[in-house]
Amino acid sequence: MRNKIIFGLVFLGIVVALYSAHLYAVPSKPLPPVFNPAPDPYAKGIYANGIVESYQTQGENINLYPEVSGTIAKVFVAEGQTVTQGTPLIAIDDSIQRATTEQQKSQAEAARALLDELKAQPRKENLEVARAQVDMATASLKSANDTLAKQQRSYDIAPESVSRDQLDNAVNAAKVAKANLDVVTRQYDLTKAGAWVYDIKNQERQEEALSKAYAASTALLAKYTIKAPVDGVVLSVAGTAGSYVSPQGAYDSYTQALGPVLVMGSSKGTLGVRVYVDEILIPRLPPRDKMKAQMFIRGTNTKIPLEFVRVQPYVSPKIELSNQRQEKVDVRVLPVIFRFTPIPGVEVFPGELVDVYIGQD
To answer: Where in the chain is the domain with CATH 1.20.58?
Structure first.
């Protein structure tokens, strides 16, 4: 009985093995691809990778960096927002610089007031005082001279009537009165002449220097607000209120690297494509006037014709695509710039990688 059971189990195992082998031997029907690989639409097309970017007459996207360091106080815009030239984008805390600017403004105003004071001299009240002093000194001199003349006549008529000491005192008093008149007259002339020209020139330079310092401080204060340099669209905002930024950019906690605080693109409907052609394929590029290209959006069967714009005549390492600053293999590429108008219903964003074939008519 036991042998029959063992024999039955062996036979069942053989049957299961044969059936399983049959099932695995039958080829399974392949699943249809989600999208077709990008085909070469040209007879001798060149394949290259491309990056979508906002179309600019020169350069790439507009990367904005602050010219000063500080903590972001307020962000005025949102990603995807359309702005016009001069629109405030980000404000950096300017409390210290604002106080410095106000201080330099006060110093410039004080220097200007002192310059106006020097130019306004002589002051009417000071001139009247100096004139009164001259009048008083003139009267004192006349009185001293009259006294001297009387004593001199008396001495000449009867020497015993006036002592020699009294006569000498009268002579000295007349000399002192004359000297005093000379002093106050010169003081009057000095007051009437006003401020010395060299004092005015010196104060003019002081006022000019302080005014320029205030203007420079005001210009620096304006840099604490980043404004849109052109009409465009805000593509990316790297910082938020409380984040620290510097002329090196803003720190990205994901990439752990510094990058632009804001990235702007053109507000025009046209987008650009920067295509990187491998250096070994450069000799196969068609002539500029006959160059055509088609862009294929990855993950779809959508293709968009491209219009040739220009060639950037500088072959560089392909770090734009790999995002590596140091590569073990020096793969160098030539940037070729195209542009296109987005197709309605197909979303394409700056920074997106696309497949491009370059050919000719």
So the answer is: 122-194
Cβ 252 vs Cβ 258: under 8 Å: yes
Q: How far apart are CA 178 and CA 142, in angstroms?
A: 9
Cα dihedral 158→159→165→169 (10° resolution): 50
The pair of three-digit structure tokens given for residue 341, joined into one six-digit string: 């108008």
Dig out the tokens for 221 from the structure: 């204060």
Q: Which fold has domain 46-55+268-360?
A: Elongation Factor Tu (Ef-tu); domain 3 (2.40.30)
Options 1.20.1250.20, 1.10.10.10, 2.40.50.100, 3.30.565.10; which CATH number does 63-92+224-266 get? 2.40.50.100
One-letter amino acid of 64: L
**Where does the chain hold its CATH 2.40.30.170 domain(s)?**
46-55+268-360
Report the candidate in 56, 63, 60, 50 with the shortest Cα–Cα distance to residue 274: 50
Angle between helices 197-222 and 95-120 (to 10 degrees): 160
Instruction: Calculate mean pLDDT across residues 76-96.
Output: 94
Q: Considering only residues 220 and 122, tell me which one the structure prediction assigns the higher pLDDT.
A: 220
Nearest Cα to 88, choosing from 209, 293, 259, 226? 226
Q: Nearest 5 degrees, angle CA 345-CA 346-CA 352?
A: 155
Per-residue pLDDT tens for 16-45? 676 676 666 666 666 666 556 778 888 889
What pTM was estimated for this model as a whole?
0.68
What pLDDT does residue 40 have? 80
- Position of tokens 């003349």? 149
Q: Edge-to-edge, what's the strand order for the sheet holding 232-237?
A: 62-64, 262-266, 232-237, 82-83
Point out which residues pair with 221 in neighbouring strands: none
